[in-house]
Amino acid sequence: MSELRFREATPDDVALLRAWDEEPHVQAADPNDDWQWEEELERNPDWREQRIAEADGRPIGFMQIIDPAREDSHYWGECEPDLRALDIWIGPADALGKGYGTRMMTLAIDHCFATPGVRAILIDPLASNHRTRRFYERLRFIFVEERDFGEDHCAVYRLERERWEAR
């Protein structure tokens, strides 16, 4: 099994992330967002982490962890404190189906819950993406509601700390 690690995403990653944005599987999962990589990778607010996943040194995915109560766009609306929200995807198509997504999510969840006050994690796949929804359900996320975020109709899921720790 290859070594998987995260490193901070930097402005040097803009071309890589733009290329991944054009991949059909990324487009299908996130069709209406412009991440504004050039601007966002220059910012480092204390409520957000942006990471590149590498398998044996090769970039294979992206992860963002935010505090939804504190992030500046208010994407999640009014949120209780002590939550985290995740965005995560595999970039290159040849890295799909190799277990990287599960390993990335497990590392991300463990990272979130390493902060003692974090009570739960939110995630919002497209409601129509049944394969991804089953993936999150296998990771013990519980469906909360369907909700529109901009142009995207999503399924909101939540993972409570106690549920993760009891696995």
Automatic annotation (TrEMBL):
Keywords: Antibiotic resistance, Transferase. One of its GO terms (biological process) is response to antibiotic. It comes from the Bacteria. Residues 4-167 form the N-acetyltransferase domain. Pfam families: Acetyltransf_8 (PF13523). GO terms for molecular function: N-acyltransferase activity. PANTHER family: LYSINE N-ACYLTRANSFERASE C17G9.06C-RELATED (PTHR31438:SF1). This is Acetyltransferase. It comes from Lujinxingia vulgaris.
